[in-house]
Amino acid sequence: MSKKQILALCAFFSLTLPAKAVKVVFRLDDPTVQYDSVHSRVLQLFAGKGIPLSVATIPCAKEEIPHEINDSSYWQLLNAPTIEIALHGLTHEDINRQGEFGGLSSDETCRRFRKGKHILSQHFDKPINTFIPPFNATNASFPENLESNGLHLLSADMFQRVPRKGDIQYYPETLGHLMKQKGIWNAAKESILKCRGKNAICVVMFHAYDLPDSTAWLQLENLLEACNNNKKVELYTFSSLYDSGEHSDWLRYRANQLSSGLSKYLLHKGVLHPTWLCLAIHIINALAYMLIALVGMLVLLVRTHSISLKRIVYLALVVIGAVIFCIAWFHLLSPLKLLLLAVLINTIPLIYMVVRR
């Protein structure tokens, strides 16, 4: 087979492979079914461009009084096919500074899930599968209570510790600290465009207060245009993302929470990466620290001729290697402190070899 034929064959197979794209979900927090001018303008903007939007909707005001529809045009905007209605707590109270759910019992959590979903279901003729906790605060009873109420998709943030139970899918808002560093719209645009063509998920959480002036509105419009015109950017709601087959289980969520010196350089912040990529980088990072810590012992092993000493060195290699790997894996020390520890460990065999001379 000639070189041209091989290249043509490779090109053909590359075209048959599924194209990779960053999947983007825009998440608007805090609307109710009552008319709001800013929320109405956001809904019209997304509808005009045909861009999906997940709307984190609050069912009740304080004292659990349900919000009532007061504008039919606004209600129709919320009912548009490209809009997903997600449950956003029951009253959106900040109870004891732990969010609405952070300090609640399992029974009270379940009651609020059930009542909130029931109220929204009376207003909308569309399934409600997604839960977005107020203030992104969760508690340990979330998995079983979400599943028992037919809420299989959870969008909090990247910092929650949720038990590994059930079959909940985790789609956290991903911009986190980048929003404070660069501003929400700049952070979103940078994260999306840097990761376009990669199998990653970007969830852009925003509120009405993120659109205080014409400059902010223009930034949002430019961002939506950039996403719409880029073939390597795909736009979804949480439900449509799950239906497309792009799942994000507990392991993927937890793998993206793992932090290491290597991941800070190789993984762009602001998106949810594939599980295998996060775990692979984390393993390589731990192995690198382990190798640094064992250099001295390996040199001693090569240079010694004593059988008894070699046995001790083998044992030390196993023990020290396991300890360093665990420290790196569980992020028990900062990268710099772990590096210093690895260097200090190397001094033990080096001192021994110097003294033996």
| Corresponding CATH superfamily of the largest domain | Glycoside hydrolase/deacetylase
Would you identify the regions where 5 or more consecutive residues have pLDDT less than 50?
Answer: 5-18
| Total domain units | 2
Which class of the largest domain in CATH terms?
Alpha Beta
Which strand-content bin applies to the residues?
5-15%
What shape does the CA trace take?
Answer: elongated
Helix-strand pattern: HEHEHEHEHEEHHEHEHHHHHH
Number of strands: 8
**Cα distance spanning the termini:** 62 Å
Give an overview of the whole structure.
By secondary structure, the chain is of the alpha/beta class. It has 2 domains: 19-273, Alpha-Beta Barrel (TIM Barrel), CATH 3.20.20; 276-356, no CATH class. It has helices spanning 3-16, 37-49, 72-78, 106-123, 142-148, 177-182, 184-194, 214-228, 238-243, 250-257, 261-266, 275-303, 307-329, 335-356; strands spanning 22-29, 53-57, 83-87, 130-131, 153-154, 169-170, 201-206, 233-236. The model is unreliable at 5-18 (pLDDT under 50).
Key traits:
five-stranded parallel sheet; 2 domains; 52% helix; alpha/beta; single chain; 14 helices; TIM Barrel; 10% strand; 357 residues; elongated
Annotate the secondary structure layout.
Layout: H1 3-16, E1 22-29, H2 37-49, E2 53-57, H3 72-78, E3 83-87, H4 106-123, E4 130-131, H5 142-148, E5 153-154, E6 169-170, H6 177-182, H7 184-194, E7 201-206, H8 214-228, E8 233-236, H9 238-243, H10 250-257, H11 261-266, H12 275-303, H13 307-329, H14 335-356
Parallel strand pairs: 1-2, 1-7, 1-8, 2-3, 4-5, 5-6
Helix pairs in contact: 4-5, 7-8, 10-12, 12-13, 12-14
